[in-house]
Amino acid sequence: MSEPVRTTRETIEAVLRTIIEGTRDDVADLYAEDVLITNPFVAEGLRESRGNEALRTRMKSFAQYLDYSEVKNVTIHETTDPQVAIVEFTVAGTLVPTGEAFELASINVVRVVDGLIVESRDHSDGLTAARLMESIQAAAAAG
Questions:
Q1: Is the overall model pTM greater than 0.70, yes or no?
Q2: Is residue 27 helix, strand or coil?
């Protein structure tokens, strides 16, 4: 007998929990092989990510710079489509190179099929995200 598939809510809750309790690979395992992630309000090169391997690579590259300690202020809004939910949350953590604490608020529109995220439209606090990217780029350039 096969295991029951996670619901959309259960999948989102698993991602939010795994951000803190798991590895970047564990988080990526909750996304489909052909996942499409869009970030319409970020720099041009980061607006779209296609496929699980691209997501996995990006997550691992950021791991050396961002240490997540808490996911808070979580609200999951279920929609009339059982595959789609809107999730509001804040990720708190530390910018590794400087030790500076940060909080990044986001609202994501997520589609889940067979217990895996197949699409996520991510909308994060643009000012905080830009500041974090500048710090990451400076740290990467320094070496």
A1: yes
A2: helix
